[in-house]
Amino acid sequence: MLARKFRFTTRLFDRIFRRSRRIKIDGWTFLVSPARGVPRFSVVAGKKISKSAVERNKIRRQVYPIFAEKLRDKVDSNVIFLYNGAAKFDRHESLLAACDKLIIQLSNR
Q1: What's the rounded Cα separation, in Å, for the pair 7 and 41?
Q2: Residue 25: phi, psi to the nearest 5?
Q3: Contact criterion met (CB below 8 Å) for 56 and 85
Q4: pLDDT single digits (tens) 28-65
Q5: pTM of the complete model beyond 0.90
Q6: Which range of residues forms the domain containing residue 63?
Q7: For the chain, what is the domain count?
Q8: Order of strands across the sheet that contains 41-45
Q9: What is the CATH number of the domain that holds 41?
C-alpha cells in the first residue's frame, strides 16, 4: 500500500484525470501530469475489467508495490495507471518494463 502522502484526494484525482496526458506503452495506459510538491499515484481498474470488486482490488494490490518500487523516487509527475484488460496482468515483467519506459520518456521531456 502506498503511503497516504503519495495517494490522490478525490478532488485532485478528478482534475488530473481530465487534464492529463495519456501515454500508452506496450498495451498499458498511463495518465501523467506535472506534480506540485509530492508526486501522487493511483491505479484504476474499471467495472469493464471485472464486475467483481474482489478481482479489481486484487489487480490494484498487485500494481501498487510496482509503483512504490519503480516510480516513487524516480518520477516527479502525478501518474494514474489505467488497467484496461488488453494486456494480461499475469506477468509482472511487462508492467515493470513499461514503468521503465515511462521513466525514460518522462525524463526526456
Answers
A1: 6
A2: -135, 115
A3: no
A4: 889 999 988 888 888 888 888 889 999 888 888 888 88
A5: no
A6: 4-107
A7: 1
A8: 21-25, 28-34, 77-83, 41-45
A9: 3.30.230.10
